[in-house]
Design goal:
The protein has about 180 residues and is an alpha+beta fold. The chain contains four helices and nine strands; from the N terminus they run βαββββαβββαβα. The longest helix has 14 residues, at about 145-155.
Length: about 180
């Protein structure tokens, strides 16, 4: 089984990153608007996600609706991901809630995507959080090993170690609203 393994970093200058990606032959898509509705099991402590805790997402993008299940392995950015397109967002929301999940956060972003070799690159402008670059690889290898490889790629683009982010946008937004 292949896993979605990624690294993510906060960036301040998107145009410099776009330019560097262009120089290595990575063209980016037109912007895509993604609205994500994240569901966690009732009673799960979002300050301390355990491994293998399922997270469900409804994503609206370009007039389509996608249902995603993510289950982390070694971290939030190393997980099993399964996704299907669905036709009825409200019916899906009802099903998710009947399964004992509750909506915990919304993530709204503008994304541009590209590919470089077997990497998928995303430049994201996330409401409430700012701009990020994400590099993802589908692999059955050790998650930490692949994340180190992906971060070497980000370093080539000028990303610094201190800009690296180890949690997803959903957790970042949840923490922003729930820190005491």
């Amino acid at each position: 089984m292949k896993f979605e393994i990624e690294v993510k970093a906060k960036i301040t200058d998107i145009s410099t990153i776009v330019s560097k990606l262009g120089k290595i032959g990575c063209a980016l898509s037109e912007p895509i608007i993604q609205d994500d509705y994240i569901f966690n099991q009732k009673g799960v402590d979002l300050n301390n996600h355990e491994h293998n805790t399922p997270v469900l997402r409804i994503r609206e993008q370009n007039g389509k609706i996608f249902f995603t299940l993510k289950k982390n392995r070694s971290s939030e950015l190393d997980c099993v991901e399964k996704e299907i397109e669905v036709s009825d967002r409200n019916e899906l929301k009802d099903i998710i809630e009947l399964l004992g999940f509750e909506q915990t956060v919304e993530v709204h972003k503008r994304r541009r995507k590209g590919n470089y070799g077997n990497y998928e690159i995303c430049l994201d402008e996330v409401q409430e959080l700012g701009s990020f670059i994400e590099v993802e690889k589908m692999s059955d290898e050790d998650g930490e090993k692949v994340q180190n490889e992906l971060f070497e790629f980000l370093k080539m683009l000028g990303v610094n170690k201190e800009d690296r982010v180890s949690i997803g946008y959903d957790t970042q937004i949840w923490l922003k609203h729930n820190e005491k």
